[in-house]
TrEMBL record:
CDD domains: trans_reg_C
Organism: Candidatus Magnetoglobus multicellularis str. Araruama
GO BP term (any one): regulation of DNA-templated transcription
Keyword check for GTP-binding: no
GO cellular component: cytosol; protein-DNA complex
Keywords from the UniProt entry: DNA-binding, Phosphoprotein, Transcription, Transcription regulation, Two-component regulatory system
Keyword DNA damage found: no
Record domain Response regulatory: where: 1-40
Ranges of the DNA-binding region feature: 43-109
Organism phylogeny: Bacteria, Pseudomonadati, Thermodesulfobacteriota, Desulfobacteria, Desulfobacterales
Protein name, entry field: Uncharacterized protein
Length: 109
């Protein structure tokens, strides 16, 4: 949360309602980027063949998606798309690139 409010009560309230961090103005853009990277490091855990992001667990070998402990049925394309997105957090993909990466062909539309 980025705010002009510097009061400790406001900071505590912001964190209590779900903010991962609290930054008061004025702030350094480099500090904001560093804080964002720190949050992403806490939430993204990759291991051989598996990816975990908070309560989402992607099991590459078995092609299973587990959310909050429940296995979710997804199509092979959906699984490939999730696997791609989770393998490159923070990357912005065009629709055409996603289709090419997941389905293996150029999109003409």
């Amino acid at each position: 949360m980025v705010t002009a409010k510097v009061n400790e009560v406001d900071c505590l309230m912001g964190l209590d309602i779900g903010a991962d961090d609290y930054i008061c103005k004025p702030f350094s853009p480099k500090e904001v980027i560093a804080r964002i990277k720190a949050v992403l490091r806490r939430y993204n855990i990759h291991s051989a063949g598996n990816t975990k992001h908070t309560n989402i667990y992607i099991q590459t070998e078995s092609k299973q998606l587990v959310v909050y402990g429940n296995t979710i049925d997804v199509t092979p394309y959906e699984f490939s798309l999730l696997e791609l997105l989770f393998s490159q957090p923070g990357t912005i993909f065009s629709r055409a690139k996603l289709i090419k990466q997941v389905q293996g062909y150029q999109y003409e539309g």
